[in-house]
Amino acid sequence: MKIFIDTANLEEINKAVSLGILDGVTTNPTLLAKEKSEPQTQIKKICAVVKGPVSAEVTHYDYEGMLKDAEELSRLAPNIVIKIPLTETGLRVTKILSRKSIKTNLTLCFSPLQALLAAKAGASFISPFVGRLDDISHRGMDLVCDIKKIYANYHINTEIIVASVRNPLHVLEAAKLGADIATIPYKVISQLLKHPLTDIGIKRFIDDWRSLESFLKHKSNSGS
Ligand code: E4P
Fold first, then answer.
1. CA-based, 20 to 30 A from 128: which of 17, 27, 86, 144?
2. Do 187 and 166 meet the contact criterion of CB atoms below 8 Å apart?
3. Strands (DSSP E) along the chain, which ranges?
4. Nearest atom (ligand 1) to Cα of 27
5. What is the CATH number assigned to the segment(s) 2-193?
6. pLDDT digit string, tens, across residues 26-84
7. Atom of ligand 1 at shortest distance to CA of 30?
8. Can you list the alpha helix ranges (DSSP code H) found in 75-106?
C-alpha cells in the first residue's frame, strides 16, 4: 500500500520524506489555511520536495471557477493532482480534465455510488473519508470495502485513497482490505512506528551494553 501524508506542512512532509516511506501528499483548503502562507507558493514548495502525486484542491464550486482553478493548479508542477469535490459540477470538470490527461482526486466521497460515478467520469483517484463516517456512527471501512468490490467487478483502474484517517487501526484495515493508498496525518504516521516492546528492548540493550563497558573498565583499572 502506498503512503501519502495528509498535510500542507513542509516540516512534517520533510520528516516523512526522510523516513523513506512517502509516496505522495494530499492537501485541502483547511490544511493549507493552517499554514498561513500563500497557497500556490506553498503547493509549489511541497512539489519540489515530493516526487509523487501532490493533491491540490479547487476552491470554487461553480463550473467555470472550478475549471479555472484546476487549470491554474495543474500548471504549478508536473506531479499535481487536482482534488475535486464529488458534485455534479465536480464530475463535469473531472471529465474535461481526464480528456486532457490531467490527474484528478475526487474528494469528500461518502458512498460507493459516488465512487462509481467518479470512476466513470475518469477520476484517477477516489478519496473515501473513513474518519468522518466513523464520527457519525457509520463504519467508514465498509465504504472502502464496497468501493474495492465494485471497482474489481468492472476492472476499474481508479486508485482508492483511504482518507480522513484518524488512527493506526484505520491504516491497518486499509492495508488488509488492499486499498491502493492511505493518506495519513503525520501524528498517525509516528504512531504506526511506535511499539512499547521496541522501546523496552532498546533500553535493555543500552543498559546491558553500559554494564559490560563498566565491567571492562573496572577490570582494566584493577589490572586483572
Ligand atoms: C483527504 O484527502 C483529506 O484531506 C483528509 O483526509 C480529511 O481528513 P479529516 O476528516 O480528518 O479532515
1. 17
2. no
3. 2-6, 24-26, 54-57, 80-85, 104-109, 125-128, 159-162, 181-184
4. 4
5. 3.20.20.70
6. 999 999 999 999 999 999 999 999 999 999 999 999 999 999 999 999 999 999 999 99
7. 12
8. 88-99
Record the cell numbers describing residue 46, joined without a space: 511541497
User: What residue's CA is closest to ligand 1, atom 7?
Assistant: 164
Q: Give me Rg for the CA atoms of the chain.
A: 22
Q: What single letter denotes the amino acid at residue 186?
A: Y
Model-level pTM?
0.95
Contact 103, 126 (CB under 8 A): no
Tell me the per-residue pLDDT of 107-149, one tens digit each, with 9 for 90 and over. 999 999 999 999 999 999 999 999 999 999 999 999 999 999 9
Please give all residues whose beta carbon lies within 6 A of any atom in ligand 1, as ranges. Answer: 6, 26, 28, 107, 127, 129, 131-132, 163-164, 183
Catalytic-role residue among 15, 44, 83, 120: 83
**Could you state, in order of their start, the residue ranges of all structural domains in the chain?**
2-193, 196-224
Closest listed residue to residue 93, CA positions, set 69, 73, 128: 69
Task: Answer for the pair 86, 108: CB distance below 8 angstroms, yes or no.
Answer: yes
User: Of 170, 172, 169, 166, nearest to 186 (Cα)?
Assistant: 166
Whether the predicted pLDDT of 223 surpasses 90 = no
Any idea how long the chain is? 224
Alpha helices by DSSP H, listed for 50-185, are 63-74, 88-99, 112-121, 130-135, 140-153, 168-177
